[in-house]
């Protein structure tokens, strides 16, 4: 077999010799170049490109000029001729997961699920593998646990007795080449990989967990499921800051990014879990799934509002307000707790991890401007009962009422729910689906409601401004 030769213009004139297939790979980031360079164009490091032997099959068209070995050109097709069934979904068998995904598992999609250690990512994937409403096989790839450990967890969760254990295939390896061989042999409909940090390939540099390893292995798995009409779930660890560890490009490569969170406040013995999407090409990112962790694994919460309300027989203490918020399509009643104390230093601070501290500062400034109540010299502490993170703007009026109550020492009226968005001019702006908020509050025994004018708001319960809202709540 003749070695590779190139003409002066770069044309390929010979045959690849398997013993002499080389690329130059960066030892810092794993970037590859067909020729040696002094500086890596990807990471900018100097003198890191080294000669590395590779399989001739990996020589792409950028290493070989246009010639006989070039693959055929891809073909386009009219949009109207595409079969709409290609975009069908598979029910996961877990309604809360389907809600967050936008209605089920989309075929030819990749889902990245991140969360802290011990939060329940592996349990969620294993339960979804057993409950998925499909006749095809499900491949569970584990680079962290042995097959015996997975079987023990499945027995504890009662998944084998459900009749679905026979279709679940287990692969306890992180080596990409082994995984691809099993994928081609099993032809699964759903692939669960736990986790992205344990995947590695002989072609992507030394050791698992590096940036290049994660990008290369994730792309290979995503390409496989898109070519074979399957779906991929990829678990991932998070950093101390709470974001998925590894390259940010990993989130751009997948179709959906999920975060599995626990109760930061430690409420409900830490058993409450929240699943939310921060990216979803096939659905909304406003939906939230709520679970409780028990001996039988994750269970959906039937009435979420019961987790975030504290039932009291007496009057509410100062600094407590009940907010009617909307998380996706689900109305919830949550208890907002506020505490104001004189600042310990020259600069006041805001302590709030469940509501964005910038929103708390803006609401406090609006209160100080329009109600002449001084908050700039106080430290503000904000908490949400149950530990749920609130991102909806409808919480702002209840937050303002809780801060006013904490600063003045006046309690809010019991059994009254509050909803509304605040403008910097002190106006109470409309919120989405007010009628469903009122209905949820009435269903939980609340006799009063206060919010902006809108369809479904009871007569006399609407207020146009923040000043009018505070007057209505604390008139007695």
Write a concise keyword list for the protein shown above:
disordered N terminus, Ribosomal Protein S5, domain 2, Rossmann fold, six-stranded mixed sheet, 476 residues, 11 helices, nine-stranded mixed sheet, 3 domains, alpha/beta
Number of domains: 3
Strands of the widest sheet, in order across it, are 8-7-9-10-6-11-12-13-14
Tally of contiguous helical segments:
11
User: Helix- and strand-based class?
Assistant: alpha/beta
pLDDT < 50 stretches: 1-20, 60-68, 265-269
Average pLDDT metric:
85
CATH architecture of the largest domain: 3-Layer(aba) Sandwich
**CATH fold name of the largest domain:** Rossmann fold
Radius of gyration: 28 Å
SS elements, strand count: 22
CATH hierarchy class name of the largest domain: Alpha Beta
Q: Percent of residues in beta strands?
A: 15-25%
Per CATH, the superfamily of the largest domain is P-loop containing nucleotide triphosphate hydrolases
Largest sheet, in brief, is: 9 strands, mixed
Percent of residues in helices: 10-25%
Distance linking N and C termini: 96 Å
* C-alpha geometry: elongated
Written overview of the protein:
With 476 residues, the chain is of the alpha/beta class. The protein has three domains: 1-68, no CATH class; 91-302, P-loop containing nucleotide triphosphate hydrolases (Rossmann fold); 307-473, 2-Layer Sandwich (Ribosomal Protein S5, domain 2). It is 24% helix and 23% strand. It is built from eleven helices and 22 strands. The protein has helices at 95-101, 121-131, 147-157, 176-186, 211-227, 249-253, 305-308, 357-371, 396-408, 434-443, 466-473, and strands at residues 22-26, 32-33, 49-53, 89-90, 105-106, 110-115, 138-142, 168-171, 190-194, 231-236, 256-262, 272-280, 288-294, 297-300, 320-327, 330-342, 350-351, 378-384, 416-418, 421-422, 428-429, 448-450. The protein has a nine-stranded mixed β-sheet with strand order 8-7-9-10-6-11-12-13-14, sandwiched between helices. α8 packs across α9 and α9 (396-408) crosses α11 (466-473). The protein is elongated, with a radius of gyration of 28 Å. Mean pLDDT is 85; it is low at 1-20, 60-68 and 265-269.
